[in-house]
Amino acid sequence: MRRIHIFDTTLRDGEQAPGCTMNPREKVELARQLERLGVDVIEAGFPVSSPDDFAAVQEVARTVTRSTVAALCRAVRGDIEVAAQALKPAQKSRLHVFIATSDLHLSEKLCITREKALGMISDSVAYACTLCDDVEFSAEDATRSDRDFLLTALNAAVDAGAGTINVPDTVGYITPEEMGELIAWLKQNLHRKRNGEEVVLSVHCHNDLGMAVANSLAAVRAGADQVEGTINGIGERAGNAALEEVIMALDTRGQCYRAETGIHLRQIYRTSRLLSTIVGQKIPPNKPVVGRNAFNHEAGIHQHGVLKNPLTYEIMSPQTIGIYDNDLVLGKHSGKHAFTQRVEELGYTLPGEALEKAFTRFLALADRKKTVTNKDIEAIVGAAGYAIPETYRLHSFVVNSGTVISATAVVKLLRDGEEMEQVARGDGPIDAAFKAIDSIVQVGFQLVNYSIHSVTEGEDAQGEVVVKLRRGKRSVTGRGLSTDIFEASLKAYLNAVNKIIAQ
Ligand code: KIV
Ligand code: ZN
Predict the structure, then answer these.
(1) Residue 68's closest CA among 241, 200, 247?
(2) Amino acid 154: pLDDT
(3) Is residue 459's pLDDT more than 80?
(4) Where are the alpha helices (DSSP H) in 138-267?
């Protein structure tokens, strides 16, 4: 079996999706999980694009030890220098240099000739190699580039020292048949490295026509060694190839692709959920592999078959990707030791303070809820991981609402031990409570998104509220968990407010 390298770009290309921006702290949290998942490369950002991106790449580089950490840079020395600087703390780092090669991009976007582009490729890749042993070159819009020029450009990058050559289908235009043919042709015609080794040939597919996963798999079949993509397929426009789908296709149809990955499959579901929580975007129920319905059988005839033998209607088992039964795991009398052990079994390592916070939340939840499940614990642990300085904390609230009165809320917050209270009216009880918070904290921002979903099932299920606030060009996501949706809403709002204050 050939070993396929998995290059995750959730923190870079994925983050470019509308509403998916992550702050450095969130990126580090996700990078830790991506490392547990076992991806070969984590592309952490585009350091020259903003101070936040630089800080995020640097922080991820400091944290991650097993996966290679990559940073994106245009084919210019300034970008490459900044990216190398951000990657300095990494144990294993990669500079990812890119420039477009299609005539459309060269003439309309970059306003340069093919010759100029070739010069920039040779110069930038050679320069990157002086700063980092591991250099990847990407030809943006490769699939709409003139074939011969594409080959010339890629060979210029190999000759200058690039060890990985990436073929992006930037606008999701190619078909699986064309992709297979292109990759087989490149495999035959690409130069070898100076030491005689073959370069790693990679693909990076976008999903504009819904073919990103199929195109990535066709490339693997034709000889590609690396697949780039994102968790849950998030990314620009219609997104990138969903890595969990590529990985499970390679695993489930191993004999067909004759290829395997180094991924720890049991971490897939957790990674998908963590990302969804961080960016505040729900996973569509019918999403392959990780959607809520992916392993649900509605038709009686299917249920009957699955009960007799799951293989009748399941080509993969939910346990393979880390979905476990929603059984009772801990209760009100479970001690810290049992809680810590369960957290570790679920694959999380929390530093002291975050563990303390998570345990306190667990005790509070166990007091209110009859059964505390693994899903509850994951939600608690997730929330503890995003801990930020709590400038304002919720002390108490009262909401009053109905069809014949206008909604009012009284909210009391704590700041440095001082109690601060405000009353407000609003368009519904949650709006009223948010307005009361606004008049206490007096920070200007806009609420751009509010969503609520239940983390677990049953009458005493925990609700998770995610809010998005915008201040200027920046937006932050806040989360709140509670069995009471008002409380969850206020906690989420305060979490976002505290993030704005901490920025
Ligand atoms: O889609 C694309 O072309 C890219 C490159 C920068 C790799 O994301
Ligand atoms: Zn891309």
Answers:
(1) 200
(2) 98
(3) no
(4) 147-160, 176-189, 212-221, 243-252, 254-257
CA-240 nearest atom, ligand 1: 1
Q: Where are the beta strands (DSSP E) in 358-406?
A: 372-373, 393-400
User: How much of the chain exceeds pLDDT 70, in percent?
Assistant: 97
Question: 451 in helix, strand or coil?
Answer: strand
For 367-415, the pLDDT digits (tens) are 887 778 877 887 788 766 555 778 999 999 999 999 888 999 999 999 9
How many Å lie between the centroid of ligand 2 and the Cα of residue 215? 14
Write out the two tokens for 106.
Answer: 């060269």
Q: What's the pLDDT tens digit per position in 30-78? A: 999 999 999 999 999 999 999 999 999 999 999 999 999 999 999 999 9
Round to whole Å and give the CA distance between 452 and 454: 7
Residues contacting residue 108 through CB under 8 Å, at least 6 positions apart: none
Least Cα distance to 134 among 165, 156, 170 occurs for 165
Q: Is 140 in the pocket of ligand 1 (CB under 6 A)?
A: yes
Residue 325 confidence (pLDDT) above 80: no
pLDDT of residue 383: 64
Does the Cβ of 170 fall within 6 Å of ligand 1? yes
CA dist., res. 142 & res. 17, Å (int) = 21
Residue 22: partners with Cβ closer than 8 Å, 6 or more residues away:
11, 15, 30, 56, 278, 279
Helix/strand/coil percent split, the chain, to 5? 45, 20, 30
Query: Helix 24-37 to helix 51-63 angle, to the nearest 10 degrees?
Result: 40
